[in-house]
Write a structure and sequence with these properties.
The structure holds two protein chains of two kinds. Chain A contains no helices and eleven strands. Chain B contains no helices and 13 strands. In chain B, the strands form three sheets. In chain B, strands 2, 6, 7, 8, 11, 12 and 13 form a seven-stranded mixed sheet that branches. In chain B, strands 1-3-10-9 form a four-stranded antiparallel sheet, with no helix packed on it. In chain B, strands 4-5 form a two-stranded antiparallel sheet. The chains are: A mainly beta, B mainly beta.
């Protein structure tokens, strides 16, 4: 089955760190660019970051650059998001998403909830 | 950044009737190189991730019922549900993938009247 499964979310204190993972299966992970997108009840969907299929190029939302790092391990079919210096406003469900050959998101994981609170 | 503005925020439609959702981008998402609009529509139900309905503004994703259609070009787009079914109750989002940062509309909640 073609799927993405996120993990690593949870409760973390402000200023803390967390690493999210996204395990891919059922397709050739190394052929696809991947993204992270987050969703908060108040502010809807927000794009977070993108990595190319090789991992050689990454981009970030301006507001997150310097705190978040996207990476991937194609041997393990896994995408990562390292989140540092977390703030209450980073509380959200984080989704990983696959980019189709036509550039749109064609596959999403079910998401992992990150809660930043003391 | 390209700002995506959806309207209305919510709408209630009778079963079997038409639902129309609008999406406007602050700048064109039409690529002159291939004459494609880099605009997608997603459906999201509670507790689920967004599901792709339409890409390139008007191309229906495989498996999506043909009552869903997308139209528009440049900066103005529409998602139409021709005959609303119970299972179509959801929030619908437009998204541009023309340029980073990728951006989403605020969502339109569709309910049964």
């Amino acid at each position: 089955e073609v799927q993405l499964v996120e993990s690593g979310g949870g409760l973390v204190q402000p200023g803390g760190s967390l690493r999210l993972s996204c395990a891919a299966s059922g397709f050739t992970f190394s052929s696809y660019w991947m993204h992270w997108v987050r969703q908060t009840p108040g502010k809807g969907l927000m794009w977070v970051s993108r990595v190319t299929n090789s991992g050689s190029s990454t981009i970030y939302a301006d507001s997150l650059r310097g705190r978040f790092t996207i990476s991937r391990d194609n041997a393990k079919n896994t995408l990562y998001l390292q989140m540092n210096s977390l703030r209450a406003e980073d509380t959200a469900v984080y989704y990983c998403a696959r980019v189709s050959p036509h550039w749109h998101f064609d596959l999403w994981g079910r998401g992992t909830l990150v809660t930043v609170s003391s | 950044d390209i700002v995506m503005t959806q309207s209305p925020d919510s709408l209630a439609v009778s079963l079997g009737e038409r639902a129309t959702i609008n999406c406007k981008s602050s700048q064109s998402v039409l690529h002159s190189s291939n004459n494609k609009n880099y605009l997608a529509w997603f459906q999201q139900k509670p507790g689920q991730p967004p599901k792709l309905l339409i890409y390139w503004a008007s191309t229906r994703e495989s498996g999506v019922p043909d009552r869903f259609s997308g139209s528009g070009s440049g900066t103005d787009f529409t998602l139409t549900i021709s005959t609303l079914q119970t299972e179509d109750v959801a929030v619908y989002y437009c998204q541009q993938y023309d340029s980073a940062p990728l951006t989403f509309g605020g969502g339109t909640k569709v309910e049964i009247k």
